[in-house]
């Protein structure tokens, strides 16, 4: 039989070490199976997964599982040999992108993709400075950790990195601050230049997932991109968390702004959890890099990974998951807005498609964050069978980010469970 939970927990603590991220809930969740938008623990209890973006087409989707198994039984090797799957996947990805983005390079994780995008951008721009949002997350390598304020130890900012605030129009409205990113970009560029550093690249998740989830008007990123390009700084759209139809209106979230980034990076949702990632860029940028060095990731874009990613694209299209994310997401946000009328602790509800943030506050007027309440709601919803996360610098924004197969009735379960959890938890003591 399966090992007991306490046994697994004790063994984990012995061998995984203290540096690995802690377990999510106060009472650990021991998961053994998944299907669609549900996961099941060791006792057979089902949970509605409203958190995990990696299984974008649902846990253990039969089409993806079959594609992986079939190719695993045939061949898995590197891209220094010809294989049609990597070519087909590149062609399929390019067909979804703006015309200028015509070249794809494959890797194993979003961290690798962002790391490579940085190398390409710094070589092409002949600059060394980076700009990111205040609480961004772009990966776990040394370089991408430097681009991830969320992960900085004790807030230590690398000298070559500057930050801008995310477009938090709800909080800014208190001080009548403009939402435009132009002034913040100009300030960041000026701060880098004052240290003798030219800006090479701006990395952004277009829905600002780690910053607290924001969905600014198209003019926001348009103006940011215009100002960046005016000073020779490149634009990297990190679609790892917010891509593959999650925004509802487009396959890639940056497309809602009508911009063409210099780079688009994709990560593990691309293979529904199977390790595969990509950098999409212009041929001239790749050629400039190739003139000085070649690029090789041993198993980036291997046949098994590519078959998984092709199956994901097929499922998104055939099951109309982008359209579903739009429809179900609108319904879910509408229901959460109704909860706001009943619960003073809900300060704001925002997002796009099936990426939704519910900001919990101790006081709506002052916008004071309530991280303790958010933590209690997180655990309360888990006890009631729904898994969500938290995000933002104060960890007070409930992050609702389910697989795109979420149904209308499951959206209602999320709403009802949050309602019940807030009703039980709400107390000034939690602020």
Structure characterization notes:
Helix 3 runs parallel beside helix 10 and helix 4 crosses helix 9. The protein has 13 helices and 16 strands. It is an alpha/beta fold and 431 residues long. The C terminus is likely disordered. It has a 7-stranded mixed sheet with strand order 4-10-9-8-7-5-6, with helices on both faces.
Q: Assign an overall shape.
A: globular
Question: What's the story with the biggest beta sheet?
Answer: 7 strands, mixed
Query: What structural class do you assign from the helix and strand content?
Result: alpha/beta
First-to-last CA distance: 43 Å
Number of strands: 16
Q: Going across the major beta sheet, what is the strand order? A: 4-10-9-8-7-5-6
Mean residue pLDDT: 94
Radius of gyration: 21 Å
SSE sequence, one letter per element: HEEEHHEHEHEHHEHEEEHHHEEEHEEEH
Quick summary of this structure?
The protein is of the alpha/beta class and 431 residues long.
Give the key terms.
431 residues; 38% helix; 7-stranded mixed sheet; alpha/beta; 13 helices; disordered C terminus
How does the SSE layout of this entry go?
Elements (H helix, E strand, L loop, with lengths): L4 H11 L15 E5 L2 E4 L4 E4 L12 H11 L11 H12 L7 E5 L2 H16 L3 E5 L8 H5 L14 E4 L4 H7 L6 H13 L4 E6 L13 H13 L3 E5 L24 E4 L10 E5 L1 H8 L12 H16 L2 H22 L3 E7 L2 E9 L4 E2 L1 H13 L2 E2 L1 E3 L5 E4 L7 H18 L6
Parallel strand pairs: 3-14, 5-6, 5-7, 7-8, 8-9
Antiparallel strand pairs: 1-2, 2-3, 4-10, 9-10, 11-12, 12-13, 12-16, 15-16
Helix pairs in contact: 2-10, 3-10, 4-9, 11-13, 12-13
